[in-house]
Amino acid sequence: MRTERNNWHLLLYALLALVCLPFVLPILWMFTSSLKSAEGIFGTPFGLTFDAGLTNFGRVFSDYPFARQYLNSLLTVAIAVPVTLLLAATAGYAFARTRFPGRDAAFVMTLAAMMVPAELVAIPQFIAFRNLHLANTLVPIVLLQIFSATGALSVFLMRQHFITLPRELDEAGRIDGLGTFGVFRHIMLPLSRPALATVAIFAVLNSWNDYFNPLIYLNDEKKMTLPLALQRFTDPLGGTYWNLTLAASVLVALPVLLAFLMAQKTFIESLAASGTKG
Q1: For the residues 206-232, what does the mean pLDDT come to?
Q2: What angle separates helix 193-208 from helix 66-97, to the nearest 10 degrees?
Q3: Which CA distances in Å does 134 have to 77, 119, 138?
Q4: Would you list the DSSP string of 89-150?
Q5: Are 69 and 224 in contact (CB under 8 A)?
Q6: CB atoms closer than 10 angstroms to residue 83
């Protein structure tokens, strides 16, 4: 029986590996092709002859302002993610554990924000930021990343998490002399680390991969963020330097992949818990 069970497990793992193959192959191709010359990519697309080595990565930084663009993306993430976490945690706690006039209506409006397409409000937003002389800066990029559909989703996830926590925790905190903020700070937040990790992952992905807003607001190459910078690896005739584009894509994707792999367990646990109540 043990041998039969092991065989079934082996067959299951083989089937899962086969299912994952279409998703893994493009990533492996991107990593291997980033080490090839342009001729090598099209000559032997799946070959293991890395004729360029790390030269492509050096050219990305030497021929283009990629280091400055990388810093721009890191700056937007460093500002947008903590602010999103703060707003999501406080708003989610208010919607889940406190009562105030218009609470349900405000929560419905927050959820409705997820249904508004960004393209619908892009023009009035651009006019407003232009009148404030903030066009071609990172300020509108950061603000629109915070107050976006991802921000509304973050509030929803935190509210669902706080609903799952027993009310007895609030009562115990108040018996010990804690006020509303004290309960939130010393009891609720320490118990919300999985949910906060999930919100952080969504916020990082939203900020790191944002292409639409930088395309509208940024025209200075040195102020561009990474998603917009990836389209700049072109030759004067309008072609694309695919070897440089793939090398830059590896540098862009690597931090996100590493962050997700490190927080994968926490991410899945929080998503499973957030949908059980509320």
Answers
A1: 90
A2: 140
A3: 19, 19, 8
A4: HHHHHHHHH---TTHHHHHHHHHHGGGS-HHHHHHHHHHHHHHTT-TTSSHHHHHHHHSSHH
A5: yes
A6: 16
- Long-range contacts for 185-190 (Cβ within 8 Å, ≥24 apart)? 188/93, 188/97, 188/162, 189/89
| Angle of the 193-208 helix axis to the 264-274 helix axis, nearest 10 | 110
Mean pLDDT of all residues in 19-47? 82
Identify the CATH number of the domain defined by range 64-274: 1.10.3720.10
Question: Is the Cβ–Cβ distance between 62 and 76 less than 8 Å?
Answer: no
Confidence band of 262 (pLDDT split at 50, 70, 90): confident
Secondary structure tally for the chain: helices H, strands E: 15, 0
Residue 4 confidence (pLDDT) above 80? no
Q: pTM of the full predicted structure?
A: 0.82
pLDDT in tens, 111-132: 888 888 888 889 999 999 999 9
What residue segments make up the domains of the chain, in order of their start? 64-274
Tokens of 181: 């903020």
Of the chain, the end-to-end C-alpha distance in Å amounts to 43
Taking the C-alpha atoms of residue 176 and residue 90, their distance in angstroms, rounded to an integer, is 22
State the angle between helix axes of 264-274 and 149-164 in degrees (0 to 180), rounded to the nearest 10. Answer: 70
pLDDT digits (tens, 9 = 90+) for 52-68: 778 889 989 988 899 99
d(CA 66, CA 221): 9
